């Protein structure tokens, strides 16, 4: 019981780990003794954040450059990872994108961009990492896949982001499908559906231009049942629960982390 939430000594990959919720999760895992590989398609930012987190947290954080909406780059990502590690304990699928437009004007490329990254890329990354996830997994200590969905995949969003909400609903159901297929391989698949956090994506949606620091989040906070936005402790706590011994018997679930928005809707 003493080490119920320990993740010390594990190896994790966090896609979209250079900013927003992915960066929060990466930082929290590093601070709890996990070696973390962050994945981003933007080389300069990925390397910079990796160095920043290593210096800040005093642990290990390594960058991998890849666009996981493209199969060939997923294959390159895995080759790069396997040149450094023989197994993966935690895969955190956080990389995602959105597109805003009305029903009447929503473009095909906006739909494809969102689904290629949020659903297709997520699926094929998991598929191709199955052997790596199995390498160090056991009945008592399975490897973990945590898919980052969204409450927009559960309730209608206030934003005109049709493909985003539908894609995240797909992530939630794909989590159940993959959980059933992979549980006997000692791979536990679950998801977290975050509500509002102070991220680049939310900032762009409400008119802050991507800025997360030095902006007034009070209006967004006032509309949340908990009267605040999510914090790093909230999303890291949920992630560590699912990845530690405490969550080893949880399979195929989507946990809302939203301050009560879905429950009160």
Layout of SSEs?
Elements: E1 11-15, H1 20-31, E2 35-40, H2 43-57, E3 61-65, H3 71-82, E4 90-93, H4 108-134, E5 143-148, H5 162-182, E6 187-194, H6 200-205, H7 218-222, H8 232-243, E7 254-257
Parallel strand pairs: 1-2, 1-4, 2-3, 4-5, 5-6, 6-7
Helix pairs in contact: 1-2, 1-8, 3-4, 4-5
Helical residues, percent: 40-55%
| Topology pattern, helix = H, strand = E | EHEHEHEHEHEHHHE
- Count of individual helical segments: 8
Main sheet record: 7 strands, parallel
CATH topology call: Rossmann fold
Structure description:
The chain has a single domain (11-257), classed as NAD(P)-binding Rossmann-like Domain (Rossmann fold, 3-Layer(aba) Sandwich), CATH 3.40.50.720. Helix content is 42%, strand content 14%. The chain is built from 8 helices and 7 strands, in the order βαβαβαβαβαβαααβ. The chain has helices at 20-31, 43-57, 71-82, 108-134, 162-182, 200-205, 218-222, 232-243; strands at residues 11-15, 35-40, 61-65, 90-93, 143-148, 187-194, 254-257. Strands 3-2-1-4-5-6-7 form a 7-stranded parallel sheet, sandwiched between helices. Strand 2, helix 2 and strand 3 form a beta-alpha-beta unit. Helix 1 (20-31) runs parallel beside helix 2 and helix 3 (71-82) runs parallel beside helix 4 (108-134). It is globular, with a radius of gyration of 17 Å.
């Amino acid at each position: 019981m003493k080490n119920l939430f320990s993740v010390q000594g594990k190896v994790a990959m966090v896609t979209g780990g250079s900013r927003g919720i992915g960066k929060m999760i990466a930082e929290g895992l590093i601070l709890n003794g996990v070696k973390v590989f962050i994945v981003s398609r933007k080389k300069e930012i990925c390397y910079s954040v990796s160095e920043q987190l290593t210096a800040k947290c005093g642990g290990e954080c390594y960058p991998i450059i890849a666009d996981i909406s493209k199969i060939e780059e997923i294959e390159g990502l895995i080759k790069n990872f396997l040149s450094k590690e023989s197994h993966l304990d935690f895969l955190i699928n956080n990389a995602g994108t959105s597109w805003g437009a009305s029903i009447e004007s929503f473009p095909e490329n906006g739909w494809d961009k969102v689904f290629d990254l949020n659903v297709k890329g997520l699926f094929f990354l998991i598929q191709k990492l199955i052997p790596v996830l199995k390498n160090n997994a056991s009945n008592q200590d399975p490897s973990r896949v945590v898919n980052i969905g969204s409450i927009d995949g559960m309730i209608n969003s206030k934003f005109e982001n049709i493909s985003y909400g539908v894609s995240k609903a797909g992530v939630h159901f794909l989590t159940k499908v993959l959980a059933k297929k992979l549980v006997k391989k000692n791979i536990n698949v679950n998801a977290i559906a975050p509500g509002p956090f102070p991220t680049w994506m939310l900032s762009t949606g409400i008119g802050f231009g991507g800025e997360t620091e030095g902006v007034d989040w009070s209006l967004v906070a006032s509309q949340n049942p908990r009267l605040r936005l999510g914090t790093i402790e909230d999303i890291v706590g949920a992630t560590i629960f699912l990845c530690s011994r405490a969550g080893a018997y949880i399979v195929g679930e989507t946990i809302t982390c939203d301050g009560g928005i879905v429950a009160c809707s």
